## 1
Amino acid sequence: MATESIETAGEWDRFDRRERLLRYVALLGTVLLTYVSWQALNVRYSYLVTAPEMTLNLFRRMYPPDATYAPEIVAPMIATINIAVVGTILAIVMAIPVAYLGARNTTPNRYTYGLGKFLIVASRSVHVIIWAIVFVIVFGTGTLAGILAVAFRSVGFLAKLISEEIEEIDRTAVEAVEATGANGLKTMLYGIVPQVKPAFIGLSVYRWDINVREATIIGFVGAGGIGMELQTRIDFFDWSGVLTILLAILVVVIFSELLSAWVRGKVR
Amino acid sequence: MLSVENLAKTYDSGDEALKGVSMEVSGNELVAIIGPSGAGKSTFIRCINQLTTPTAGSVLLDDVELTELSTGKLRDERRNMGMIFQEYGLVDRLTVMENVLSGRLGYVSMWNAFRRNFPADDVRHARATLDRVGLGGMEDKRADELSGGQRQRVGIARAVVQRPKILLVDEPTSSLDPESSRAVMDLLTEIAREDDIPVLINIHEVELALEYADRVVGFADGRIVFEGAPDEVDEDVRDTIYRGGTEGSLEAEPEPATESDDERPATPTER
Amino acid sequence: MSGELADSEFASYDGEWERPTVFYNTAVKYLVYAVVLVFLVWNVVNVWVPIDRLLRGFGSAWLLVTSMFPPDFGVSIVVTPVQVGGYNVFVPSALAVDNDALRLWSGMIETLAMSIVATAIGVVISVPIAVMAAENLVPRPVYVVGRAIVSVSRALHELVIGIIVVVGFGFGALAGVIALVFATPGFLAKLLAEDLEDIDPTQMDAIRSTGASPIQVLLYGVAPQVMPRLIGLSIYRWDINIRAATILGVVGAGGIGNVLIRSFDRYDYQYSMAIILSIIAVVIVGEVASAVARRRVQ
Ligand SMILES: Nc1ncnc2c1ncn2[C@@H]1O[C@H](COP(=O)(O)OP(=O)(O)OP(=O)(O)O)[C@@H](O)[C@H]1O
Ligand SMILES: [Mg+2]
């Protein structure tokens, strides 16, 4: 007994030592990797020396924000919200059939399942900016490109989570409704809709909130919204105008986030 | 009256779950189906209201052949059969009242169903039934806020408001503690008597079956191997049902293991 | 006993039933629905685009797609003829790599380097911010400042910071790193702060009762409890930073995004497609690697 416990203690010690060694190696590796990466970036050290001063300088030129300019950003800000809302609606409309294909228990066959999964991955792994560039080429500069970029970017996210929700549906409950003699539509209304509705609303609102943020940047490539205005101000070196826009974005984004969190707390 | 003739079901997987089962259920009797796991009890119940489509045979409910109906006609007939599930089959996020009223879905229009607008008679009946199963005042609770026993009683209420000609019950007590199990069985017996409808129950616990049933049917390997009154179920009959050639299911069936099997010869006797 | 309960037996029950609502009453419910509907319709009307523009777009969409294929990675296989029994048989003999391929490669390396440096710096500055944003560890005013930093970092997209730094300061890859560092606390400090708020206070008290200074309490009473989580979150953030780093170049902040936007400007769509596919590949590899690494840590 006694020898056994000593032995296990020794083993534990050894395990502990190996673990600790592993940790140091990992830490060393991370530091080394960071150093090599830093070298690869070829940063001029003069930049680093002047950076704090430049930052201060920039802030001085930004402050105070230009209040007289504020009314001018109302329209692009509204356009930003419009893009987020309509983009999300469009994404939902497209995501429902994709989710249907991508859920194991509703997809018609193996190939449709593969198709669903492919569409989800394709949409998710292309950044909204890339979608925006593509749609600006196709439809020209403006809101339409922005809406489509936001929509195509969101489809994968929504479809993935909705399909997971569909896969978790309680089949017995649906059968029970069917067994009362309800037709397909009523079965859906009483058996399926209540099971997926809260998640569906929650996800949509959550995605909308993300999309407000994304809609602030797609303007950099011409896809409408406040980003286009911001780009113009920056190009004119109108820094107090830039600060005005940044504050406006801050207010709108934080408000959307709070609203989205509140709604998600309400539905369950 | 329910009359089943030579019912057979072979699943796509090749499993022969039912191999020709015939049975009649009528009046206000409580019929208990017992048998080892995998004997085909659930399949049988589900083949009656066509949740599972049988491969062969006939199911007559008051002289209507259920196996050959069009989808629309089948839906109309399903309104006449109340079904109660082992896992309750409640929609968690709906209220108790919505779950109960869904028993009337076959009678209301799509639009009214959408608006939760049911006829006053249906609502009264639903309230009365909830009272009857001991859940009066719980209408507005969500189904997932209830205990297992309460949930099963909501499931029963949903079946009762259908005003069915028969109740089909699949393992109503398997997910419940002994006390709730008895309460549920008491309730089902009471409904059979008062509403004057037959109740067909799949049940694992033999003792419960013997206590409550008017008639016991023993299933083994997709066939009926025993049919008779509860007091006819002796050791021989248990052997037939639980050990008659289906050794594979022995481990899955704890009850017979408690009896001393050496004392009696395991002779699978036909009734 | 005949049949079910006679009608008279339940005539006393209320025949009305209404689904309870999360709103105060049904009137409020329908009002809310109406407001939401009006809001949605207002949005759609605001951006209403004539259908013909959409339809015309579809034509050019097809044109764009066809001009993107096949993707051109700038790598080609050189074939040389070899005499086999009097016939010329073409045999692959070498890989030809042109400038496009080199630009793609170095852009990708820069992207990865940016993400690594930014994650390292970002984690280092996120930790103190997380402590500031943990309600149970710091006095109220400090907490408010901590939360404010997190909110600003979350609300401003890294691309917004990137474009300002690029124009304001004028440096490429470093601008990208700054943008990513700026955005990191919004994720890392926020989640770490939530974990700090959940820690077991008795361990903290035990250290404090030995007369340790607040810094020592953090080091010995708090840090061990959240270390695995911090590592997991850092790996996760690295994954996110890789994604972000691939597109920062679009506004001139270094990395593969730079190469991508130039290819579009040159109408070199086959090359653009190659870049997009490379980005997707790197992003997916990063995602898988991060998921595996996080599982190892936990
Ligand atoms: N959906 C299905 N697909 C394929 N085979 C099935 C299906 N459902 C049941 N089976 C098979 O049919 C046979 C009978 O199953 P059934 O569920 O009817 O048995 P049971 O008597 O209800 O058992 P238990 O007491 O475990 O509920 C089993 O062999 C089972 O594997
Ligand atoms: Mg069963």
## 2
Amino acid sequence: MSDQSHEVSGVPLLEVEHLTMRFGGLVAIGDLSFTAMREQITALIGPNGAGKTTVFNCLTGFYKPTEGRLTLHHPVKQEQYYLEQMDGFRIPQVAGVARTFQNIRLFGNMTVLENLLVAQHNKLMVESGFSVFGLLGLKKYRKAEAEAIELAKYWLDRVGLYDKADWNSSNLPYGDQRRLEIARAMCTRPQALCLDEPAAGLNPKETLEMNELFHFIKEEEKIGLLLIEHDMSMVMEVSDHVVVIDYGRKISDGTPDHVKNDPAVIRAYLGEEEDEELPPEVAQDFEGENA
Amino acid sequence: MSVQNQKLDMLSLLKESGLAALIAAALALPLAGFKTFDVNGTLTAETRFNWVLVAAVVVFFGRMAISIGQKTFFPSMGQAAGGAAGSIGDVINQNRTLLLCLLLAAVIIFPFTPMANRHSLDLAVYVLIYVMLGWGLNIVVGLAGLLDLGYVAFYAVGAYSYALLATTYDLSFWICLPLAGIFAASFGIILGFPVLRLRGDYLAIVTLGFGEIIRVVLLNWYEFTGGPDGISSIPKPTFFGLAEFSRSGSDGLPPFHELFGIEYSSLHKFMFFYFLILALALVTNLFTLRIRKLPVGRAWEALREDETACRSLGINPTNTKLSAFAIGAMFAGFAGSFFATRQGFISPESFTFIESAIILAIVVLGGMGSQVGVVLASIVLVLGPEIFRELAEYRMLAFGGLMVLVMVWKPKGLMSKRNPTVLMHNDTNAKQGAAK
Ligand SMILES: Nc1ncnc2c1ncn2[C@@H]1O[C@H](COP(=O)(O)OP(=O)(O)OP(=O)(O)O)[C@@H](O)[C@H]1O
Ligand SMILES: [Mg+2]
């Protein structure tokens, strides 16, 4: 489908192989394979209901895939993790895959700073001797907590929320909530960050700041980003690699330039013009719909 | 337009008041409609339908007055209620530390004042038991957001642990107390492990069932628990193994008044119980205040807010919930062994569902998660029925009315403001958002 010169090169971080997710009779994802590279931004795009969020839910353990293998190559620990076999909470904890949600999920009645400390729970739990040292008020724990607040402060500065650190997170304006959710995910010190429509509902200025934040995370933190986004101009500007899915199947994969001009993508977004050029699996779906 | 609006208003007003009156009549019929008395050993009832009528009429006009008052004085009811509540809460919060110190001082001095007598001390102990149980359940319901309707089961486990250990093995109170806590916590873990995967209503139902199961087991396992006869002559605690509370010592321990060279007073024993439960309750409170600021405490609150988000941050929800459940159960176990030693006699009667309901009501009424709120709510809920005892058969009615009033006045509980566990900035300007 995609021609060789537009293949994306890099060191693999997250490999998705033959991922299939069925809900009863509905095939939300069908035999999807792609690879996200280290220190790159991989965009996952497709029309509404294409199955993008479902891919994230499989990657982060919220759904158990019906079939397929999801491998994370951990750059620091030099180990491979098969995400489809892991418990949901162990994926961020051990494999270092963090995520944000399409409909923001903050701890609304807790302050901004508390949200960022909860994200550092596992490290702080160990440092607090599973609460024993903490209850005794040992210095070791107090030092660890100060470090955690330092990290929180670093990310608050990054997303411009330092002044609002003591606000209840539900009182933040919408754009701030989106950025706080990203800061919170970053406080888990992830290797791969999955962002589900991070720019949805933002104004153009905020979207621009969001782009800068992604570049910063990619270049300074040296981690891989997976991005679901509907705003095409943003996708084309920020990503190194674009994967297009439609009806749960991959229809295009490559550099932004390649994908932009791929007739299959244009058809998926603008509707079909010439039936005979449809890739067989998409054509099947269309026939299914018309029948 | 406006005329029609008013007409509609009048109609809905009448409808509302009529409905309220109907409910009042339905409630009043069994409560006040019949008066039972005893004629030559047989029970007869006299009807008093005029009382029912009075109740219905009073409620009808009362409801109307409330509606009219609301519409004229507070056009937007929700805001007005929030505003009024906020101002009182603010005053309390501004002088928080001072108020708390004064309260604590008063509570410590109380047994030495002339007000202290057998009755008042007993009542204070009774309230303090519920304060402690409220603080314990607050960890489970208020912080971790797990609706536990069977909390009394752990209270029962604590009480029976102490009673059985003390009567069979002659262990002292001070050894049994931690053991009772451990037993109760273990029960918490055993129950919690399969059950904590459930959410919300399902968890509530299963815990309710568990509470009943424990009671039924206590009732039927005659050889072990004494069944409905319960366990009696449970030993009293000694003064830290140094002295005991009696006029003349036995068992080789000197009497308390001789140890300290003071005059004998039967009040000493009651004062000791008072300080014992006060200390236990304060330990529960300090523990909660402290653990709230630790990672596990924050994780409990985060879990209450959004379990899905917690999992996406690498928090193990089962273990975290289990820890809240076990720790809550442990404090119920402590309270239970205190209850057993104070009463000297326990039976399954003391551990019915209504106890769980009262403790839960204390937590909810106090404002989920609020420590001071629990104290206020315990005073209202435990002392309330005592005070209204004068009103004989109407005391439950008065008590119910009081609860409805509180829920209307402060739907989020008496003290609903949450204090952040950690602050980045210490000046108040930056807290704007937090205060809202
Ligand atoms: N838990 C579920 N049970 C049943 N069907 C589901 C479930 N989750 C997702 N689906 C279905 O899978 C398909 C893909 O959904 P998904 O949320 O992944 O789409 P999406 O690409 O994220 O869309 P959008 O752009 O609107 O967010 C949809 O048809 C949806 O109804
Ligand atoms: Mg989606």
